[in-house]
Structures are given as C-alpha cells and as structure tokens.
Amino acid sequence: MSMFDDIPVDVGVVYEGERIRGKDMQFEFGGPNVEQKFELVQARDMKEIEDGKIIIQGPDLKDLEEGKSYPLGILVEVAGKEIEKDLEAVLERRIHEFINFVEGFMHLNQRYDIWLRLSKASYKKGFNSFQFLGKVLTRLFKSEFPIIEKIQVTFITDPKKISEWYKKALQIYEARDARARGMKDEDVTEFYGCVLCQSFAPSHVCIISPNRISLCGAINWFDARAAARVDPKGPNFMVPKGELLDEIHGEYSGVNEVAKQKSLGEVERVWMYSMFGYPHTSCGCFEAIAFYIPEVDGIGIVDRGYEGTAVNGLAFSTMANQTGGGKQVEGFNGIAIEYMRSPRFLQADGGWNRVVWLPSNVKERVLDAIPEGLRDKIATEKDVTNTTELRQWLKDKGHPIVKQWKEEVVAEVTEAPAEAVYPTAPTEYTLPQVTMPATMAAVPGGVPVALLQGVLQLPGGIPGAAPGEGFQLIFKNVKIKVDKLIIKREEKGKK
Ligand code: SF4
Ligand code: ZN
Predict the structure, then answer these.
(1) Per DSSP, which regions of 380-426 are E strands?
(2) Pocket-testing residue among 283, 323, 333, ligand 1, by greatest number of atoms within 8 A of Cβ
(3) pLDDT by residue (tens digit) across 259-292?
(4) Would you give the end-to-end CA distance of the chain in angstroms?
(5) What is the architecture, at CATH level 2, of domain 13-180?
(6) Distance from the alpha carbon of residue 286 to the mean position of ligand 2, in angstroms
(7) Which residue out of 111, 196, 205 has the highest number of ligand 1 atoms within 8 Å of its CB and is therefore the one to mutate?
(8) Where does the pLDDT of residue 435 fall: very low under 50, low under 70, confident under 90, or very high at 90 and above?
C-alpha cells in the first residue's frame, strides 16, 4: 500500500524535473498571464485549524476550461508544539518540491510569482480536483516534517478572495525580508546553504548569508537557520564561514569547501558579491538576472515579470537559459530582488555605481535602496530601448560608469583619423574564460553567430536548437592574438 493509492496519478521524486509544454497542458495557474497569485505557509495555534482539512474557495479543477490561465492562491496552515514562525518560509518553499512530485503537475517559482501547470494526460487519468493536490501536500509535509501535528490546506481560485489574500501575502513576504536588513555578514559566524534546487540544477548550491538572500528570494538567513535546526538532514544546512579570504569579493574558505562538497567538485570557489570571476551559481528560480552589458561596461537587471526585451535585445527567458542550470556563468547572475537592497549588492563589481539599466517596475520597488545621487542616472525601458541609446543617455546624465570609458575618449576626438591601426606589434592577450550570449538567426545553410568582429559559421547548426533560440558560447583559456586592430569611424546611418 502506498501513501498515494487514492490519488489517480503517480507521486514521486521521478516526476520532479518534468516540464509541461503549452500544448500538453490542461490549464495553468499563475505565470505570466495572471497578475495575482501566491503561495503562503502560516503557523497557527493548534486550536485554529483542523488537521487534514482541504478547502477550495472558487471553482475546482473540473470546473475550469481547457487551455486557459487562472489565478491561484495556495494557503498551507500548520500547527505543532515545535512549529515556530521562523519555519514558515522554508516550509513554504517545499510546496514547490512537493507539487512537482505529482505526475503531470509542474510548479515553478515561489511566493507571489508561482506558475503551475496540469497536464492533459493526468487530468484524463482523473486528477480533476484540488482535493487530490491537497492530500498529496498534507501527506508529504507530515512525513517530511514530523513536527507538523496539524495541517490544513486552502486553494483559492475565486479572484476576489485571491485579491484580499494577495495583499496580505505581500506584506508577510516584506516583513520576512525586512528582518535580515541591517544585519551584516561579518556579524554572524556561520552562513547557511540550500540544495533544494539540485533536482533541476545538479551542481547548484545556494549560499545564504545575512547580506545575500537566496536567489529565489524566498529563504533568508533566519529561515535557513531555522530549517537547518529542525531538519538537519533536509536541504538546508549550516556553512561555517571559515577564513575570510577576500572581503571585497566575499570569498570565505568555509563557503568554498561546502560549495565544492555539495556541488560534487563542480564549484570550487564562490565570490558572494560578484557576477564575474567565480560568481554564485544560478539554478532556475531566480527572481531577476544581473547581466553584463559590454557596450557600456555596465550591469543591467531584468526581472522575471518583465515582458519584452531588455536593453541588450534579449528577453528574460533567453537570458534565463544562459544563466541557469547550476553553472558559474560570468556576466550572468541569478539574484533575488531583495539582494538589491543589500549593502554588499555586487560590491566587487561596483554595486549600484555599475548598474545602468533596469525595468521601471523594479526601479520603483527598490528605489529607496538606490543611492540618491544615482536614482535619475539609471535608465529604464521608458528611457532607452537599445545600448546605443543607453550609451548616450548615460553620458547625458553623467552616470559614474562614463568615467570608466577611457578608450572611447580617443575614438571620439573629432579630429581622429578615419582609420587608426593598433597595436603596432602583434600582441597576445590571455583570458581565463569568455562567455558570450548569442542568438540564432535563421539563415539557410548555416547558423552565423556574431563573434567579436568575425562570424562563426556552424554548417550543421547547433543540434536541437531552433532558429531564434538563445544559446551561449563558453571559451576557456582563450588566447586572443591581435596583429592589427582597426578602429573605423562610422558614417551616420551606416553600419
Ligand atoms: Fe533553495 Fe536556492 Fe533553490 Fe531557493 S533557489 S529553493 S534557496 S536552492
Ligand atoms: Zn532554484
């Protein structure tokens, strides 16, 4: 007898990595087409809830139309002698994992940003009520956390009720985030780690410190500490800081050791406060991506909710493919929005002084964290639409990054020759690693990739990649030999 005999589909770890494509879905909840959605765990008194009760407020699965997107709120209430408020966030994060155990159910992201899909196949097998999902959650939570003595699950699909709860939920998330503000990494002796996302990104290890909340934004230092205490065999664990090796980059011997061990040797060094060199790995559920913009030597931020293309011409989803998967990708870093409030936010790279572009929504959300003198110097999609415009804009506004553009000063002298040749003797440069984003173009007979100045022709294309799909080229230990570098002045209107 299995724990899930009365559920019409299978439940197990094997289904965790399952993706459900649009054409295979019965319907979806949350995601980019739905504004209000959330999941929330709340600790209650024993008397307040009824163990095993599953409540559905609004239409149930069987009442919904095929192919559509619906709002959803998931409220899990728990009680028990050892249940503390501190545990809410980590319990909440497990909803993601447990729903993914259900055959034909996909769950992405967290908090106010959830995205669930049910497959047509599982719906046909009889998975037509939230009752089933509630039972799965109830049983998995109780077996995984014996300290949960009572659990009650509510699914809300009624838009009016979601609206009320949504506002409350946002306040609760904000209160959790605010707790770690004001604390410093140097004030604590240990950090915490999380490997919950290794089922999707096997070499990914989150290192969670007071100044670097997890990239999913759902687990801060207090949350991870509470989880490591009650569930030491679970995905959260203590990371002794060890020796501080580099204060600016945020490199600690203890962090390096744990990252190496938990990533099975994939990751040997971590710079907690940098997106270059040895950046923190990114799984897939980051709230935002910090991306390098070579044209202006600055950093852009794009969040998951941003529609359209960022200032570099790439959409969030394209950059997400390049960023995620548990690798250390220089120039792309999955981050939480809350991390932008940290005094250590990309400190080694220049922090806010290096940020040149971000969506207006995000700017509004973190405005008070942006140093005052910079607020009107960082562009949004409302100010510029490409890097050429961005460059001009930064210059006009006097953004601090402009001072870093030394070479450009030479090229810009009006009297500069139409063609200049550097250097006079062949010069060799060695770069440890070059990572560059690229986008496939549909070209008959091959797939050209803009590569520095040249064009890389891959006659057969990249296996499995479709035209228009983003991908990434990583060259390790690159030597660039330059015989001649020609800087030409462009005539207006000509490429
Ligand atoms: Fe844990 Fe990090 Fe995944 Fe969040 S992103 S669930 S902290 S591994
Ligand atoms: Zn993740």
Answers:
(1) 419-422
(2) 283
(3) 999 999 999 999 999 999 999 999 999 999 999 9
(4) 69
(5) 2-Layer Sandwich (3.30)
(6) 7
(7) 196
(8) very low
Q: Which helix (H) or strand (E) holds 154?
A: strand 150-156
The pLDDT, as a whole number, for residue 17 is: 84
| Domain covering 185-403 assigned CATH 3.40.970.20 in the classification | yes
Neighbours of 382 (CB within 10 A): 9
Ligand 1, pocket-test mutation among 285, 289, 304, most atoms within 8 A of CB: 285
Q: Which of 64, 76, 250 lies closest to 152 in space, CA to CA?
A: 76
Per-domain boundaries in the chain: 13-180, 185-403, 419-488
Residue 95 Cα to ligand 1 midpoint, Å, equals 12
Residue 355: C-alpha distances to residues 289, 293, 347, 408 (Å): 12, 10, 11, 19
Helix, strand, or coil here: 390?
helix
At 266, list the tokens: 């994939």
> Using CA positions, which residue lies closest to atom 5 of ligand 1?
216
Q: What sign for the dihedral angle of Cα 373, 376, 379, 381?
A: positive
Residue 383 phi, psi (nearest 5): -95, -40
Q: Are 186 and 251 in contact (CB under 8 A)?
A: no
User: Which amino acid, residue 2?
Assistant: S
Q: What is the spatial distance between Cα 274 and Cα 251, in angstroms, rounded to a whole number?
A: 10
Using DSSP's 3-state secondary structure scheme, residue 386 falls into coil
Residue 170 in this model has a pLDDT that exceeds 50: yes
Task: Show the ligand 1 pocket: residues with CB < 6 angstroms.
Answer: 93, 194-197, 206, 214-216, 218-219, 283, 285
pLDDT tens per residue across span 300-341: 999 999 999 999 999 999 999 999 999 999 999 999 999 999
Contact (CB, 8 A) for 107 and 74:
no
Q: Would 13-180 and 185-403 be classified into the same CATH topology?
A: no
* Alpha-carbon gap, residue 340 to 275, rounded angstroms: 13
Question: Closest-lying ligand to the alpha carbon of 193?
Answer: 1
